[in-house]
Amino acid sequence: MNEKTEEIEKDVEDVETVRDTLDSLEGGTEDGAEAVGESIEAAEDIGIGEFDKDSDELQQVFDETQEHESELHEDADTVSSDLGKISDASSRVENDAVNGELLHAKEEAIRDKEFLEEQEKEAQEAREESRRLHEEHQARVNSGRRS
Question: Apex CA 78: angle with CA 72 and CA 80, to 5°?
């Protein structure tokens, strides 16, 4: 996701550079200034096209990340259910050695659940930060679009 966000930042910088260049031109002959302006506008259109293409690819990454987050959440829920089953079994078992192993199993399941929850949280935070940056990039590109 970070790699795609960096590509989009470069796209935005390219578009802004082209726009700044167009704004700073002072001209020459009427025909020459028009030809230069058209070429620079074409460069801007290409930069916007690259931005749009990379944005679509980033959206696909967002969707895949969100699906991964859901899978992590489901796995954590499954481990929670397993914890309940282990606790139920432990309450019915009389042998201390067996209960000791069930306790060990419960501790392992708790660690697994915590790991899954942390992974889900990190994936969500990364996706949200990338989305925030993408919205900023989108605003920068849209702020100078020609009508």
Answer: 105
